[in-house]
Amino acid sequence: MRKLVYYVAVTLDGFIAAEDGTFDGFVFEGDHMAGINAVYPDTVPTQFREAVGLQDAPNPNFDTVLMGRNTYQVPGGLASPYAHLRQFVVSSSVTDTPPDVEVINSDVTGRVAALKQEDGLDIWLCGGGKLAADLLPQIDKLLLKIHPVVFGRGIPLFDGKADITKFRRTDAQLFESGVSFLTYEREND
Predict the structure, then answer these.
(1) What is the per-residue pLDDT for 75?
(2) For residue 111, is it within any domain?
(3) pLDDT tens-digit profile of 110-168?
(4) Domain for residue 27, yes or no?
């Protein structure tokens, strides 16, 4: 069975974006970029893959990406940001997407459960604090790029009511840029 993996950048105080949905305070240069991109090239937006030398890189981890509306409609965003993956946007208001971006507007948990049953690589939950809170019971793994910045307020990593869920750290990488890359797996109940 495929795993649902919440892979996201986060501040020291637990925010994935500022209140307006921007993430300008994150560190976009440094040794962490090459180090993480080498292992997770599938998470680099399609239009930037060539610029960072990943245009021919295979997708070793993910073949599907799941985004909340705000993640998909980030200011300056692309209509098909991850064309090298199967793309889903969870929204009741987004209707105008290209053919390679499918909108899920009802029974999100059922649809994600069905996606997990399909053959293929893992499913990347790209963002959306509210979506992550709703899908927490189905999240199998967390990949957190913790940036050395405090926003003070913004969109939390999990934005909403969620039951206590335990994960165990399975890997940690520290970079000179100050970014920490932590991997957590869901503990067996």
Answers:
(1) 63
(2) no
(3) 999 999 999 999 999 998 999 999 999 999 999 999 999 999 999 999 999 888 999 99
(4) yes
In a domain, 166, yes or no: no
Q: Is 23 helix (H, G, I), strand (E, B) or coil?
A: coil
> Which two three-digit tokens encode residue 50?
């060539």
Distances in Å between the alpha carbon of 27 and those of 10, 18, 19, 30, 123?
Answer: 11, 14, 18, 8, 25
What's the domain count of the chain?
1
Convert the pLDDT of each residue in 92-121 to its tens digit.
999 889 999 999 999 999 999 999 999 999
Decide: helix, strand or coil at residue 112. helix
Query: Is 83 a domain residue?
Result: yes
Residue among 129, 125, 12 nearest 70 (CA): 129
CA distance 174 to 161: 31
Which domain, by its residues, includes 52? 19-63+72-95
Residue 58 neighbours by CB distance under 10 Å: 9
